[in-house]
């Protein structure tokens, strides 16, 4: 079975984040990874567009109970009807998680991925977290660009 | 986006059920439908095998938190970690639901699909339901073979 | 911790079903059981009314994302936002499941409870299930009245 | 129906966090709020102990499929079998969310509560979040002690 990588990010994003997410999707599809995402706009749409441009398979795990609002580049759109509980499904189903940009929903996916703790979690920009001592809690990998993010997953040694 | 059809059935099945599920998967893939299933053995494995034999895309929505036990013919395996709550996801994400064979888990999927009520639900054999007056509650379609089941979804008029 | 019993049934019910559900709730509360239900009308409201009349604790596990439509007799209303996936939560959290009346949603709860398989499942009227040979699949207990239903849970020997 | 307040925090905590969580639970129960929590140890057990000491109702929404590991002071323990997707249920069911201490799981609850966006979210110590410009994303309230945290929910004006 193919490797599966979740790419998480906000439903609205800057042009720079769009390019990063799109390139990340493209690089993952070139490596034959299945891309998992939230299935809507912004970073989710960008990563789907990138993966599709390279002939990849993209699964959008939607929060809503129907497919309205789903992006145009998804291979499969799964309307879970679970609300934001679907964030857990996205990161739980992945062999690695890449986070592009920041929002509360995105942060919940980053935190759920770290809570799960079994797979690499790589951040490309976005929000940061500090513990009680003002230090990063540790464990999140930080990449400078999509190529480095994909490499940091460790899935293609 | 492609049409999506859920095929539900028990994790252990008879040889006749295996053939029916496999043929159903094959016919759906030939029509370019994405097949959704529970991702494990029995009917789930048979429908995946059939869809794959025709070059189709099959998504296994797993109850467990990891991919152990997932069938070999899935394009994507989504370990949801939701237990049997994943049955809701499978039927909620489908444009039509086909049920092959019977078990309590299978019946929960049939009932959740009928409770949702927006898409055709077709049974190929399996368990039956009677209301307080001993009559079928109505709404479930009954097919004699995979070809009729696929036709009864109404997705390919 | 108190014993927890789920009482499942349709959101619309007959007067006879209302009385059965209410009496079931009352009997459970008298035995200090926490009552779990779906939290809306019909059988769910009746069992909550009965439990409350005897000073019991009733938890309504709601499908919606907010409390609108929740019945007036719940001690706690949990809007899960999970849709019908919440049916899994209701029966999974119970030490016994009592089903009053029939509907597709109710049948999904009966089936999920039987699929789980660790606790007694008692039916008070409602729909029935037949396997491929026309026989009841076995395992569901059938009670004639609320008192017998509560006794059949085996929680108060 | 009673007001419902979720209190979130790590399963292991310092003595100072225990005292804060316990006092928060006590103050909420004195105001007749139902307390929702994750149902296990650390901050979850402390808030349950505090609420129970004041005669309050505490619901533990467990991630696991059974009640093993549930704290001793819960009025109701709901084993959801949803894994960390239950974090969404906890914060979605609350009229206000109070966060004590920090961990990845706790951060996911904070983020899910902020993503939901309809109710006050108050932090008592714990981890902090910075956006791309190094600023707090805004919206989270910060309290110095349990009394202030409870007041900041705005539920008892």
TrEMBL record, chains A, B, C, D:
Organism: Actinomadura graeca
Signal peptide interval: none
Pfam family, one: LDcluster4
Xref: SUPFAM superfamilies: MCP/YpsA-like (SSF102405)
Classification via InterPro entries: CHP00725, LDcluster4, LOG_family_nucleotidases
Protein name, per record: TIGR00725 family protein
């Amino acid at each position: 079975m193919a490797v599966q990588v979740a790419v998480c990010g906000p439903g609205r994003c800057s042009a720079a984040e769009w390019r990063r997410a799109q390139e990340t999707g493209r690089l993952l599809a070139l490596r034959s990874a299945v891309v998992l995402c939230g299935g809507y706009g912004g970073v989710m749409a960008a990563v789907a567009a990138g993966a599709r441009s390279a002939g990849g398979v993209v699964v959008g795990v939607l929060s809503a109970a129907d497919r309205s609002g789903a992006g145009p580049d998804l291979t499969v759109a799964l309307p879970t009807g679970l609300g934001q509980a679907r964030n857990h499904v996205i990161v739980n189903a992945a062999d690695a998680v890449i986070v592009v940009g920041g929002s509360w929903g995105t942060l919940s996916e980053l935190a759920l991925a770290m809570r799960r703790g079994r797979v690499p979690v790589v951040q490309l920009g976005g929000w940061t977290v500090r513990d009680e001592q003002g230090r990063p809690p540790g464990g999140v990998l930080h990449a400078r660009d999509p190529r480095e993010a994909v490499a940091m997953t460790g899935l293609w040694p």
